[in-house]
Amino acid sequence: MLTPSVILSIQKLCSLHVGPIDLDINAQQCIGLSGSSGCGKSILLRAIADLTDHTGKMFLKGESYSSIEAPDWRRRVQLVPAESLWWHSSVSEHFQQPINQQYLSLLALKPKIEQQAVNQLSTGQKQRLAILRSLEKKPQVLLLDEPTASLDRDNTERVEALISTYLSTANAAAIWVSHDPEQLTRVANQGYKLVEGQLVTASSHEGDQA
Ligand SMILES: Nc1ncnc2c1ncn2[C@@H]1O[C@H](COP(=O)(O)OP(=O)(O)OP(=O)(O)O)[C@@H](O)[C@H]1O
What we know:
Structural class: alpha/beta
Bound molecules: adenosine-5'-triphosphate
Number of strands: 10
């Protein structure tokens, strides 16, 4: 029986060499996930987002994965990949509505960026916009794959603050993948390391030697 605060429950989730994974994530909780390069962190996020083959059970607010249409699951469980994907030429075409001005400002992005061509943006600008594109869908779970890898310290802090604000205002949850143990100490309530396909509780000060 799920307790009301559990947003995402994962049971015996397996994909490629990752799993079986059991994990419950509560509302407003951010799980930090570390592990050596190539251990399968992205595979795990893609399995949870239903973007790669997997077995096992998942429940979103008590609703079984098998009873939720795939596009709806992917809207409610948003993956922000390490390298953002863009398929239209302009930024605005990737958003359903005008971009939230408050969010743009929080990420130090100018309003005019919405009208720019994607190929005129820096990697860091694209990374921040990809986060805003995911937030527009109002996800219940955010899967963040190294979301600040291309950012300087100031912008890293801006993204951390925005995600924290989003989780509390939307009562959402996140899994945050990072190779930076200090960042995971800042953003996560609980930390895990992926070792040989299994989640191991990570000490908040444990280094990631990847
Ligand atoms: N679709 C796939 N089919 C087969 N092997 C895959 C597939 N996707 C990834 N892999 C392999 O699985 C392993 C884990 O990849 P993954 O991208 O999950 O690693 P990671 O932990 O996110 O690494 P990094 O920290 O470097 O981003 C890698 O060896 C990769 O080559």
